[in-house]
């Protein structure tokens, strides 16, 4: 193996360690398979320059997010998946979204932690909602949304029960970007204190 190929392999090994994730989780976060990532790390296959740079950028951002206890898309999805009830799942979703807002305001590259594709929350409704909220926040900040956040609308409308509003009121008070995804949640329920 030539010197440059060895350097690429070593950098990918460092990125994996810095990410704090397993090889399978980091590979998935980068949009590839664990076996493909393994071939990059061993030098059997050469990654594209874009993949190589993205791996380093995302690993660094994930490391910084862990140090500062900032939620990332993978951490938010895991928190939703592990939530004991829907109320807690919503809190975790909104906390993750608020952390993304903080990162996007910094303009220092730390938002790359949200480029890491999350595993499933265990529910298509929350998977889609996390993707749509993420894309919306990136767009609102004038940034290109991560590839994983480009998602199809739900096949069936999702209208979570509301303690004070009926279905028609929920639909009427839903922001257009959520309605396009077939998700109906009043705008005020997306605000945090």
Tell me roughly what share of residues is in helical segments.
55-70%
From the N-terminal CA to the C-terminal CA, the straight-line distance is: 55 Å
- Kindly state the mean pLDDT as a whole number? 94
The proportion of strand residues reads: under 5%
Structural category = mainly alpha
Task: Spell the H/E element sequence.
Answer: HHHHHHHHH
Describe the fold and architecture:
With 193 residues, the chain is mainly alpha-helical. The chain is built from nine helices and no strands. Helix 1 packs parallel to helix 4, helix 5 (73-82) packs antiparallel against helix 6 (86-106) and helix 5 runs antiparallel to helix 7. The longest helix is centred in the middle third of the chain and has 21 residues, at 86-106. The chain is elongated. The model has no long low-confidence stretch (mean pLDDT 94).
Short description:
The chain contains 9 helices and no strands. With 193 residues, the protein is mainly alpha-helical. The longest helix is centred in the middle third of the chain and has 21 residues, at 86-106.
Give me some keywords for this one.
mainly alpha, 9 helices, elongated, Cro/C1-type_HTH, Helix-turn-helix protein, Lambda_DNA-bd_dom_sf
Write the layout of secondary structure elements.
Layout: H1 3-19, H2 23-29, H3 34-42, H4 49-67, H5 73-82, H6 86-106, H7 124-140, H8 167-172, H9 176-179
């Amino acid at each position: 193996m030539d010197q440059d190929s060895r350097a690429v392999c070593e950098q990918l090994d460092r990125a994996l360690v810095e990410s704090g994730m397993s090889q399978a989780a980091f590979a998935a976060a980068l949009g590839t398979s664990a076996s493909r990532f393994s071939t990059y790390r061993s030098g059997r296959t050469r990654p594209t320059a874009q993949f190589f740079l993205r791996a380093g950028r995302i690993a660094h951002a994930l490391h910084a997010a862990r140090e500062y206890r900032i939620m990332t898309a993978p951490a938010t999805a895991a928190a939703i998946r592990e939530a004991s009830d829907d109320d807690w799942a919503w809190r975790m979703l909104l906390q993750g979204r608020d952390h993304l807002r903080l990162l996007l305001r910094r303009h220092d590259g730390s938002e790359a932690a949200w480029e890491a594709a999350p595993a499933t929350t265990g529910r298509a409704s929350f998977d889609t909602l996390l993707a749509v909220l993420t894309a919306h926040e990136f767009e609102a900040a004038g940034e290109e949304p991560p590839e994983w956040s480009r998602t199809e609308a739900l096949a069936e409308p999702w209208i979570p029960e509301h303690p004070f509003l009926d279905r028609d009121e929920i639909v009427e008070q839903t922001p257009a970007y959520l309605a396009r995804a077939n998700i109906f949640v009043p705008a005020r329920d997306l605000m945090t204190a």
